[in-house]
């Protein structure tokens, strides 16, 4: 069971409900069907990937000059991602990693 809280009015009003999402993938499939679990997985991956792309477009060098990653370089970065998470590493660190070939 997971407690889910939603707030409005800058946190002045909040409500919390409890929902059973299961404890693992198999539980989630039993509760919601494989189609629903995959649809939600895909939607979250798209949102995460959009954030990654935005970070690549906002890159700047040490002098503050915009140095966005675009085109083929951006596609290469996207292709190397095995998963998308809500943890957003520093985009400049990502650029350095790709530049020196340390991504696996």
Characterise the protein shown here.
By secondary structure, the protein is an alpha+beta fold. It has a domain at 48-104. Helices cover 48% and strands 13% of the residues. It is built from four helices and two strands; from the N terminus they run ββαααα. It has helices at residues 25-32, 34-57, 71-79, 91-99, and strands at residues 2-8, 13-19. The protein has a two-stranded antiparallel sheet with strand order 1-2. A hairpin with a 4-residue loop joins strand 1 and strand 2 (13-19). Helix 1 packs across helix 2. It is flat and about 50 Å long.
Task: List the topology elements.
Elements: E1 2-8, E2 13-19, H1 25-32, H2 34-57, H3 71-79, H4 91-99
Antiparallel strand pairs: 1-2
Helix pairs in contact: 1-2
